[in-house]
Amino acid sequence: MLSPANTFVCLTEGGPGCEDTEPDKYYPSGSRNYARVVAHDAYQGAAVAEFAQAQGVKSIYILNDKEAYGLGVATNFRNAAESLGIKVAGFAAWDPKASSYEALFRQIKGTGADAVFLGGLICENGAQLIKDKVAVLGPNDGEVKLFGPDGFATQQTIDEAGEAASGMFLSVAGVPIDEFKGAGAEFAEAFKPRLGGKPIDPYAIYGAQAAQIMIDAIGRSDGTRASVVEEMFAATVEDGLLGTFEINENGDPGQAGGAVVGFTIYKATDKLETVETRSPKPENVDAARGT
User: Are 153 and 48 in a shared domain?
Assistant: First the structure.
């Protein structure tokens, strides 16, 4: 299995936010058979923490939705934020089944935090959470900023939360179409006619890169599943659609830069507007991992 988009850390390595049995429980035979071409959430946590610091955040309250992804990315962000000197005013979970979060945000207000991070998914009652944040702590471009990871980086967040989403910062793995270079840019240009003039989603390029690695692995294999997996892990991409990188022993992209480890920061208006792209510093990624 080869993913162009999954960022959950615990699929490939253990650490803060992972169960003791992760990632081994996903590989009961003892052999790895999963890889990806996108950076995992330790990179996302580091990228958002760096961006929050650049926005002047001094103290942040971190919430998660109690699910594996949400708790994981919240933990990665907490580790990176603390390493950068940002005070973590609190770390708690929200109940996706709650009808109101105003009491929670009144509690957060009492900590004096100047930002809130939401680790989780918009479908876990995220819209109500955002609305109540604004109701109690004010607009997201005011005294208390609001940050969310790729679980919130969707038009659904804006549509469901309405004006309350305005000013919220959101992150997603990958870079915008106009930042691809070389083969990636050429692929995007060649792909345009097939969409009838519609914008190309950047993940089309990540998907194409994953498909190319898999097809090449099949071509080099002896035709067995085990051989295909072995060749997938042996892949080294030179000047590919996402640049130059390899698949390491965990199944993550190694020796990578640019589009592979880049994250896009958006600001919510009536749509997602790009603020910047950022590739986090290696030492901050290590901090996010808890190493």
Answer: yes
